[in-house]
């Protein structure tokens, strides 16, 4: 038995949710470029869950259902208030989502209908949790979700307590579309491994949030912003990046396990970064990002991934950098839950093998004889 480090290239599941073939990403066979331009996030969530785009009445039904479930139980809000000040926002989200199971009477109901309902509940409630936590830690009261608006709108509204500008809603919605699903990425795999034991959907999503948190995966968007903040200005880009490359340090937001010729989502976020810069009358973050891309691609051949330009976009939308990865989760919970439902439909325990490389032929040594 020979292990493949990081399971690179191993096909570990059959899935009909999203595909990456020859560098082209599709959700249910629809090119991400088309969805980014035309679809709303709610349409995409429906597509991932049901395998088809919704009719107008199906979409209205989903928006109504999301509105119905968006408020989180008072006990969960009370829990958020107890988290230590300065908690990591992804750790807080992971804990809060796990706690939501305790207040859902059907958390352990494994019927298909209950699982489909819980997928919608989780999708509805993650934005509320992230926004409520962001406010509570600043000493502000959470803002109750608004009925009848989309998730992008509602999230920005609950975060700021103000009606968001149309352009901000549009940008956020597109970002959510672009992050919704991505085949068997690490967090989705974690979710599928967890539920393949026939554990519940909350356990699967909690596992997924834990996996997304890491800087080699979703956590890279925050790490990109840390880097941009450290660089500070366009004039410092070259020396900073050159220093990192000379020291063989990783540049966050670059490289990808599957895409070797570029992540198709990055160009949409790059465009959004430029547009938001123009709107804000401040192009520096965009220009710094472009210069970083030129240097890293020029010297290492590495292309930006989905996390690179999302950092400047979210910052220009006024979002604190430690909410970037939670926002990724707000979107990706659509894909996680779609994969969880797909796993339940044709389940088999996921249990690979390890190549043993430890010592052999050892004997138990009594404690008094150990050196
Ligand atoms: C939503 C997402 O999860 S997108 C990915 C987000 N993660 C990041 O942006 C973090 C930075 N990028 C990385 O760490 C990697 O490119 C990953 C984790 C995305 C992919 O990792 P892997 O497929 O295992 O590639 P691996 O890390 O083996 O890289 C291959 C080579 O490219 C180099 N490399 C890869 N990414 C980078 C980078 N961002 N900066 C500098 N060098 C890099 C590696 O050092 C390695 O070089 P070597 O062969 O000389 O040792
Ligand atoms: O697929 C991956 O490995 C990571 C990624 O880009 C994503 O999850 O969006």
UniProtKB/TrEMBL annotation:
GO MF, one annotated term: citrate synthase activity
Biological or metabolic pathway of the protein: Carbohydrate metabolism; tricarboxylic acid cycle
Catalytic activity reported: oxaloacetate + acetyl-CoA + H2O = citrate + CoA + H(+)
Record-linked Pfam families: Citrate_synt (PF00285)
Protein name: Citrate synthase
Keywords: Acyltransferase, Transferase, Tricarboxylic acid cycle
Family: Belongs to the citrate synthase family.
Listed InterPro entries: 2-MeCitrate/Citrate_synth_II, Citrate_synth-like_lrg_a-sub, Citrate_synth-like_sm_a-sub, Citrate_synthase, Citrate_synthase_AS, Citrate_synthase_bac-typ, Citrate_synthase_sf
Gene behind the chain: citZ
Keyword Coiled coil: no
């Amino acid at each position: 038995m020979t292990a493949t480090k990081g399971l690179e290239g191993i096909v570990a599941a059959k899935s009909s949710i999203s595909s990456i073939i020859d560098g082209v990403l599709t959700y249910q066979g629809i090119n991400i470029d088309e969805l980014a331009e035309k679809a709303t996030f709610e349409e995409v969530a429906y597509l991932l869950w049901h395998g088809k785009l919704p009719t107008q009445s199906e979409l209205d039904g989903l928006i109504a259902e999301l509105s119905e479930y968006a408020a989180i139980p008072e006990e969960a809000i009370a829990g958020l208030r107890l988290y230590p000040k300065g908690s990591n926002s992804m750790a807080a989200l992971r804990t809060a989502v796990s706690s939501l199971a305790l207040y859902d009477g059907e958390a352990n109901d494994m019927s298909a209908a209950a699982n489909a309902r819980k997928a919608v509940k989780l999708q509805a409630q993650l934005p509320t949790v992230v926004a409520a936590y962001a406010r509570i830690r600043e000493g502000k009261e959470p803002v109750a979700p608004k009925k009848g608006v989309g998730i992008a709108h509602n999230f920005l509204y609950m975060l700021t307590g103000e009606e968001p500008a149309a352009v901000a809603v549009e940008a956020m919605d597109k970002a959510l579309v672009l992050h919704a699903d991505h085949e068997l990425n690490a967090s989705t795999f974690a979710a599928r491994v967890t539920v393949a034991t026939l554990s519940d959907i909350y356990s699967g999503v909690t596992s997924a949030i834990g996996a997304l948190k890491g800087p080699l995966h979703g956590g890279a968007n925050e790490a990109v912003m840390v880097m941009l903040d450290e660089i500070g200005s366009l004039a410092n880009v070259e020396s900073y990046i050159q220093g990192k490359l000379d020291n063989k340090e990783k540049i966050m937001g670059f490289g990808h396990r599957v895409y070797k010729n570029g992540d198709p989502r990055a160009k949409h976020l790059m465009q959004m970064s430029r547009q938001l810069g123009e709107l804000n009358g401040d192009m520096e973050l965009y220009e710094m990002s472009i210069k970083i891309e030129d240097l890293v691609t020029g010297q290492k051949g590495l292309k930006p991934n989905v996390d690179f330009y999302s950092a400047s976009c979210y910052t220009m939308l006024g979002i604190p950098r430690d909410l970037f990865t939670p926002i990724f989760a707000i979107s990706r919970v659509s894909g996680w839950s779609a994969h969880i439902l797909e796993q339940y439909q044709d389940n088999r325990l996921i249990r690979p093998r390890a190549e043993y490389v430890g010592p052999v032929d050892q004997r138990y040594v009594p404690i008094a004889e150990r050196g």
